[in-house]
Design brief:
There is one protein chain. 0% of the residues lie in helices and 19% in strands. It is mainly β. It has a single domain (3-51), classed as Single Sheet (Rubrerythrin, domain 2). Strand 1 (3-6) and strand 2 form a beta hairpin.
């Protein structure tokens, strides 16, 4: 599964683990995350992430 990196702070979204603190379950592809989701570290939107 793909990983996506925040270009601002370096946080890695790993689709294998998701973001359970924000209700994103393990196995959720980055493309399937709601558009209003933000980086849990620095608060930027999905548009500031790039595939790692």
């Amino acid at each position: 599964m793909a990983q996506w990196k925040c270009t601002i702070c370096g946080y890695i979204y790993d689709s294998e683990t998701g973001d359970p603190d924000e209700g994103i379950t393990a196995g959720t592809a980055f493309e399937s995350i709601p558009d209003e989701w933000i980086c849990p570290v620095c608060g930027v939107g999905k548009e500031d992430f790039r595939e790692a």
